[in-house]
Specification:
This is Carotenoid oxygenase. It comes from Lipomyces kononenkoae. The chain has about 525 residues and is mainly beta. About 5% of the residues lie in helices and about 40% in strands. The protein contains four helices and 36 strands. It has helices spanning about 105-110, 285-290, 360, 365, and strands at about 25-30, 30-35, 45-50, 55, 65, 75-85, 95-100, 150-155, 165-170, 175-180, 185-190, 195, 210, 215, 220-225, 235-240, 245-250, 265, 270-275, 305-310, 325-330, 330-340, 345-355, 385-390, 400, 400-405, 415-420, 430-435, 445-450, 455-460, 465, 470-475, 485-490, 495-505, 510-515, 525-530. Strands 2, 31, 32, 33, 34 and 35 form a six-stranded antiparallel β-sheet that branches. Strands 12, 13, 14, 15, 16 and 17 form a six-stranded mixed β-sheet that branches. A five-stranded antiparallel β-sheet has the order 1-7-6-3-36, with no helix packed on it. Strand 8 (about 150-155) and strand 9 form a beta hairpin. Bound molecules: fe (ii) ion. Fe (ii) ion binds near residues 213 and 525.
């Protein structure tokens, strides 16, 4: 199906096709290569995010259900198989396929004439009808139907180590979706609580929420599950390669929040409760079945961010006195970047928003260039920020987080941050991300940030809207930025997407693999690379 040609777009920077309804590419297609794929880029790029936003209603001819918030778009998964130059393909080869991942959910919506099932991120229904989008139905018996799981994708579940592994997608609900590694077809749904655990029958991992972003180290994966109620609590756990979860700590809090990612070092897990509090100790979420209506929108400048520092060695499992709490002025964040121990201090980098208003700004209507009323301004974007938690072991109970660095220019905003994964849990120098200069209704260019000097480099072209940039290291490289970035870009003028490979040192384009006319990879959230 050809996408409708846009008529008017904010600032003549068309991006509406990135928020449109996609069709599957079930049979892999070969993409048109311009430039040359570096010899070491040999493997697969997986991407996940929304692929459609409407459901035509069978019983209401001419009417459709329309998704309100970007985060609620229906799942679509993409796979690019990348081969380096060979005699048959002197510039290299890229094969592409995609698969929708929420067919059952959409059928359920149609069956209920547009107003079915359970919880979501930002559903707005004047009748407070239950509905499933970003989140999914969560029943006490762990059964899941119609799940829309589309935020992060890991081809090496559990963990990120090589060996026997599965392709698994996660979201901020306690739901995981296993895909077929080749066809991307959904095969199995499960929860953290359904796995083997060392917590016996306590069922600590049966709560409704988790983090879409796990942390990883040495073959283990780490995450949390949040439970609401009179005494809300976060259960921090690890998962080993035998698919057994191990409880590290249980933290009771007065105000549970929307926490999309967290930090880890070699010694500690740091759960940072920035300001995005669920009202009524989380019971608002259980009532509203969506995040936006459940978060306290009033920004309180006097309510501190709390940084819970939990030893990874398990010593806090039955002794919460081992957990230290640091405080800082309030902020909001989706994405932590990296953290590491430095002596007795912890250094933590994140993409920091001044407040949580961005949650209400990411509606489909506000981001699409043909419906938006203005640009996404640099002030709307998050700034790179570094915090330090000093003298952790010597801190008795409470400490003060120290603001150490922050990109000073709003134009240097950086979201969907990535870095050379070899630097995980250690000091890093470069961060890559998407950025807005205020020329488009959505993020419009890529930025490379040197966190030591706060100097930036950009990759931009009028009408191009890039996605998260994933780093692939040059195996013969010497420097942290010796490698390439893989990013999927919408060419808004040509109305098609392309995989672009950039030199991570210079941010110069090396190669692009272009999809056929009107073939779009929707604006999504995250991806991962699996090199051979
Ligand atoms: Fe994310």
């Amino acid at each position: 199906m050809a996408h409708a040609k846009p008529t008017t777009h904010v600032n003549n920077w068309p991006n509406a096709a990135g928020f449109g309804d996609l069709e599957d590419t079930a049979t892999p297609i070969s993409l048109n290569i311009t430039g040359k794929i570096p010899a070491y880029v040999n493997g697969s790029l997986f991407r996940t995010g929304p692929g459609s936003y409407t459901v035509p209603l069978t019983n209401k001819p001419g009417q459709s259900y329309k998704v309100y918030h970007w985060f609620d778009g229906f799942a679509q998964f993409h796979k690019f198989d990348i081969s380096p130059p060979s005699p048959d393909y002197p510039n290299g080869r890229v094969m592409y396929r995609s698969r929708s991942g929420a067919d059952a959910l959409k059928a359920d919506i149609d069956k209920h004439d547009g107003s079915p099932v359970s919880a979501s991120f930002g559903y707005r229904d004047p009748c407070k009808t239950k509905f499933a989008k970003f989140f999914t139905r969560y029943d006490r018996n762990d059964s899941v139907t119609g799940a829309n799981v589309s935020v992060t994708i890991n081809p090496r579940f559990p963990s990120t180590m090589s060996g026997e592994s599965e392709l698994v997608v996660k979201t901020d609900a306690n739901q995981l979706l296993k895909l077929n590694g080749e066809t991307l077809e959904p095969e199995d749904r499960f929860t953290w609580g359904s796995l083997k655990s060392d917590d016996g029958k306590k069922r600590l991992l049966d709560g409704p929420l988790s983090a879409a972003h796990s942390c990883f180290d040495s073959g283990e994966e780490f995450n949390y599950v949040c439970n609401f109620g009179p005494s809300p609590y976060y259960t921090i756990f690890s998962l080993d390669r035998t698919r057994t979860t191990k409880i590290i700590a249980v933290i009771h809090v007065s105000q549970p929040g929307y926490i999309h990612s967290f930090f880890m070092t070699k010694k500690y897990i740091v759960l940072c409760l920035w300001q995005a509090n669920y009202k009524y100790r989380g019971l608002a979420f259980l009532w509203n079945h969506n995040v936006l209506d459940s978060i306290d929108r009033t920004w309180n400048p006097n309510t501190n961010t709390q940084w819970y520092v939990i030893p990874r060695d398990g010593s806090a499992r039955h002794d919460n006195s081992k957990i230290k709490v640091f405080n800082s002025p309030p902020f909001f964040c989706f994405h932590t970047i990296n953290a590491y121990d430095e002596g007795d201090d912890i250094v933590l980098d994140l993409s920091q928003f001044k407040d949580h208003e961005i949650l209400w700004k990411f509606t489909v209507e506000a981001l699409r260039s043909d419906t938006a009323t203005g640009v996404l301004t640099p002030d709307d974007g998050p700034r790179y920020t570094r915090w330090r938690l000093p003298n952790v072991s010597k801190t008795k109970d409470h400490g003060v987080a120290v603001l150490e660095a922050q990109s000073s220019q709003a134009a240097d905003n950086i979201e969907l941050p990535t870095y050379n994964p070899a630097k995980s849990l250690t000091k890093h120098k470069y961060v890559y991300g998407i950025n807005t200069a205020g020329n488009s209704s959505f993020f419009e260019r890529l930025v490379k940030l040197d966190v030591d000097t706060l100097e930036t480099k950009f990759w931009t072209e009028k009408g191009y809207s890039p996605s998260e940039a994933l780093f692939v290291a040059d195996p013969n490289g010497k420097q942290e930025d010796d490698g390439v970035l893989l990013t999927v870009v919408l060419d808004g003028f040509e109305n098609r997407s392309m995989l672009v490979i950039l030199d991570a040192r210079t941010m110069a384009e090396l190669c692009r693999a272009t999809l056929p006319a009107d073939k779009i990879v929707g604006f999504g959230f995250h991806g991962s690379v699996l090199m051979k």
